[in-house]
Amino acid sequence: MTVSPPTGPTDSTAPAEPAERARKSLAPVFEPRTVAVIGASRNRDSIGFSLLHNLVVQEFAGAIFPVNPRAESIHSLKAYPSVAAIPDPVDLGLVAVPRDAVLGVVDECLKKGVRGLVVITAGFGETGAEGARLEAAIRDRVRAAGVRMIGPNCMGVINTDPEVRLNATFAPTPARPGSIGFVSQSGALGVAILNVASDLGVGLTQFASMGNKADVSGNDLLEYWEDDPATRVIAMYLESFGNPRRFTEIAKRVGRKKPILVVKSGRTTEGARAASSHTGAIAGADVTVSAFLEQCGVLRANTIEELFDLAVALDRCPLPRGHRVAIVTNAGGPGIMATDACVNLGLEIAGLSEETREALRGFLPAEASVGNPVDMIASASPEDYERAVATVLADPGVDLAMVINVTPLVSNPIDVLEAAARGARANGECPVLAVMMATDEFYEAIKGRGDLPPVYRFPEPAARVLAQLARYGAWRRRPAEEEPPVFPVDDAAVAAILERTGDGYLPPADAFRVLELYGVPVTAWRFAESREEALAAAVGLAFPLVAKAHAPDVVHKSDVGAVEVGLEDLAALERALAAIEERLERAGHRPAGWLVQEMAREGHEVIFGISTDPRFGPLLMFGLGGRYVEVFRDVRFGVTPLTPTEAEEMVRGIRGVKLLEGVRGEPAADFAVLAEVLLRLAQLSVRHPSIRELDVNPFLAAPDRSDARAVDVRIRVGSEPELPGP
Ligand code: ADP
Ligand code: MG
Questions:
Q1: Model-level pTM?
Q2: How far is the CA of 536 from the centre of ligand 2 (A)?
C-alpha cells in the first residue's frame, strides 16, 4: 500500500500525554534492537522454532539471541544456555518455555535488564485459579520492575516498520507494511486476521495479540497508536471489555484523531434477558455493547472481512461531510440494488442539480440516465467514468459516491477503476468506493493498490461502508467536550421513596412521584384504595378521565382489561370502575388500588426506559411505545453519561421518526421535550443505581410541549448493581 495522502481521517493534533507515555513504555516491545527467544527450539513443529524462524525470515533489523540450554545453535544462530549468558543487552524477551518455568524465566529477564516481555506460553488465568495466581505473580514482578508485558497466552507481536521488521509471532502468514494497527484479544483469530489481511493485500503498522492481558491491555494499544502518524486506522478484535469506563475515555479521545474499528464477538450468543419490563426484555447485552461503541465513536463490524472492508475505506478516503450518495453505474440492475442498500442503511440518494445533469448530458449518450443513479449504460468508457465521477462530485449536494462497473466486453476493468480514481482525485473531499463485478484475476491484479478507490464485489457491502463513513463523519463533527446537563432535583426525596420499596416494584403512586420529582411531565393522577375513594378523588380532575386498576401480579394492565379510557363524567367513571373490577376478578386478580387520571388526548405513544448492565451501568432506551413495543422493537439505546447531542440522536434515530415528525398533515411532536426527558432519566439512573428497570410506556409525544406527558410508569428497584472496579 502506498503512503496515503494527507486528506484522510487522521488529524495532526498536539500529542497527548498518555499517548507519549504509552509510546515510550511499549517501545521495547515494538521497537527492540535485540530480542532473546527463550524456549527457542530446533524442533520444526514447535512454537519455539516458529518464533525464531519468523524473526529470521522476516529479516528482523536487530540481533536475535536464541536461548536453549540443550543446543549450541538454532536456525544457524548461536544459542545461549540462559538469558544471563547473553553478552549483549536484551531489549525484548520473547518467552515460550513450559508454564512452570515462566516465572523463573521472567525473573531472569528482569535481572538481565530486559525492557519488554512477550509471553506466548499458555496455561494461566484461562485455565483456572492456580493459573490465575501464577499469572498475578508474574504481573506483579513485571510491574514492580517497570517493564511492560504482553500476554501470557498470546500469539505475539509484529511491527512492519522497515527500520524494525519485527515478527515476534508463530503465525504462518507474514504481514505487509501498511497503515492499520491491529490488536486481537484472541490468538487463533490473530492468525485468521493475518490471513485475511494477506488475501486482501492490506498492510499493517503493528499487530498485537493480547492473550490474557495480564499487563498490557487493548486500551494501552489505543494510546500507543494515538499519535503515531503511520497508523491511520485502529482495528480491534475484542471478546470482552476489561474496563468499559476507561475504554470510553480513551476511545472518545483517540477516535477524534483516527477511526477505531471493532469486531466484538458474541453477537448472537447473548440473548435478551428474561425481564418483565419492555426495556429489560429488549435490552440484551449485545445492544448495550453496540450503543456503547456507537457513543464512543467506535465503528462496529460483524466479521473480520467486514472490518477490513471498512478499514481500507477509512485509510484511503477522506471523511464525508454528510450522507448524500451519488451512484454512477454502467448497468441498471446493480444501480437499483445500490439504491436500495443505501436507503435501507439511512443514506440519502443525492438529488443532482440541473447544472450537473446538463454537464452529464454533454458527454453521455442520449439513452443514458442523468438522474441518480447515473446510468451511463453498457457502452461507458473509462473516460466516461472519469468525467462522470468528477461531475457528480462537483455537485454541492453530493457527499459520497459509489461507482459501479459490470465488466463490459470491450474495456478493461482496471482502466475503468483507474479512470474513476482520477475522477475522484479531481475533487478529493468526497469518499468514492467502487463496486467491480469482475473476475478473480482483476481482484488479484489490484491487490494492495492503495492508489485506487476501495473496491467491493457487490453494492451491499459498499453501501454498508458508506453508511459507516457517514456515521463516523457525523460523530467527528459532534461537539467534543459536551457534558450531560445537571437538573436540580430533590434526590433525597427520591431516595426515600426508592428505599421504601427496597426490592421489587414501586407502588404506582410512588413511581409517578419519582417522575414528578425528576421533572418528567406526568398526566394529573390520583391514587385511591377503593372504588368509592376513586370516585371522590376524581372531583379535582378534568374530564375526560381514565380509570386503571392496580394489582401487583398484573404486568400489563390492559391485557386483563384493567384500563378504561375516555370517561366523560362521574357516572361513566363509576361504571368503568365496576366493570374493571368484574373483569379482574373473573381473571383471578384482586385490585389492590385504583388510579384515576386525566386523559391525554394528543400525541404519539413513545416509550422511555432504563435498564442496568452489570459492566456498563445504566442503559437508556427510547422508541415507539404502546402495547406492541416488543413486536416492532423500534428503539434506540444509549449508555450513561448521556450528552444532549446523544439524547437528540437517540430521539431522532428511530426508524419511525417520520411518525413523530408528522405524516399526512399532522403536526410534529416536540422533540426537545423528548430529549430532555431522556436526559432527566439518565440523571435519575446514574444518581439512583438501585433502579434496576424503569418503563415509561406510554409517554404521549405531543406537538406542544405543555401537552406532552407520561401516562404509565413502572419502576423496579434492587440492591445496587455491581460495577467493575477501576
Ligand atoms: P398497561 O401498559 O399496563 O397495559 P397503560 O396505563 O399503559 O397500561 O394503559 C394502556 C393504554 O391505554 C396506553 O398505552 C394508552 O394508549 C392508554 N392510556 C392509558 N392511560 C391514558 C391516559 N391517561 N391518557 C390517554 N391514554 C391513556
Ligand atoms: Mg403501559
A1: 0.85
A2: 25
